[in-house]
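An example makes the point: we let one protein speak, the chain in one-letter code, the fold tokenised, and here it is:
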Amino acid sequence: MAIATPVNIQLHQKSRMLEIEFDDGQHFEMSCEYLRTHSPSAEVQGHGPGQEVLQVGKEDVNITAIEPVGNYAVVLVFDDNHSSGIFSWDHLYNLGKNKEEKWSRYLERLKEAGHQRKD
């Protein structure tokens, strides 16, 4: 099965949303906070299962740059100086497709750790 590739990536800095349209017709809007807290970097994911690092205080984070990596990914540069995650097309698609489940789980983890998001 071929991996869907983006045909349009648009950053809306004012609303802190990244909009991605894929060549299979799927269209996702994801907040910068969601993308930052689900970065594929080792800083966030750890170096193996169960080593994930809960990201807190990222409500106001924004993306300052989107840097292409070959024909398969982008690096999202965040204004909190995080730029080590390579977001492959597959990873972005997965984040978009499973946003509700992943976001709910993130909110549960915050609560379990005693952190409260500011709105």
